[in-house]
Amino acid sequence: METTRVAGAAVSRIGLGTWAIGGLDWGAVPDSAAIATCLHAIDRGINLIDTAPIYGHGRAEELVGKAMRAHGRREAFYIATKAGLEWNERGVYANSTLPRLRSELEDSLRRLDTEYIDLYQVHWPDLLVPIDEVAQLFADFLREGKVRAVGVSNFSIAQMQTFRSVAPLSSNQPPYNLFERQIDDEILPWCRANGVAVLTYSSLCRSLLGGRVHRGMVFDASDIRSADPKFKHPRFSQYMTAVERLAAFARERFGKSVLELAARWVLDRPGVSVALWGAKRPDQLDAVAGVMGWCLDVDAMIEIDRIVAESVTDPIGPEYLTPRVRGD
After folding, report:
1. In angstroms, rounded to a whole number, what is the distance separating the alpha carbons of residues 173 and 155?
2. Does residue 219 register a pLDDT over 90?
3. What's the angle, vertex CA 52, arms to CA 48 and CA 55, rounded to 5?
């Protein structure tokens, strides 16, 4: 397993994303399978586990906590969780009001059954709360010893600059994959230049690059992909064409799968620290080994760009994931 450092701590360059084991947006997941997945990640050298209260409305954090207890060594886990989203019957909203953030931290510590969180992140910027106030509260969490490093997710450069003027900013977590490259021009270079670690989510584009999605596939209404424009006609066909061509390229050039190619692509981008890898069963981590120990050369990067540009003529980003503003 390749490693890097986040706020001085050694972490695996592949991190386990636990959105799926929450069970609400990706189909039901038995507790036993979810816990086994977390433990299998540790066995494979993956120590960074990323979670959030929104994943299963607290369930993912509880399962990660159970996995840590089953393992027996808290220090074997680098836990990254988040705060700043609320939910109700109308949808998901950004909410970084200070009392809520304080309450969320205590709830996450309880669900994880731990005395500290390794990396605490603001899940989304709340446009109704000044960022410097949020950063000051996160700095307080650091001083209290309840968190060991703080980061943000889905923040712009201006928002990160404001945050880091008040609190030490260790990381940023944006969406990033072969099909969603909005951070390439500005955010990724800025993070690299300013020593901010980048943890990419949707590294396999909601499994589109995982090698198991096929043409004509229909997603249940409870599956988050049913609301993703990439999985709807006519874009779905374009993206599947790209996946099929990338799979052929990966096999012929490197003897690899499209999943291995896509994950390696993320890791080889300058400035990327960690690629998050979603899984809800232990076997979904088996391909991690095939991502290690090689890299993409310049010619391969150029060919990948050509395939994507030719295949996807009507690209779209992950904007559908943006939470609502309170009061809307």
Report:
1. 8
2. no
3. 115
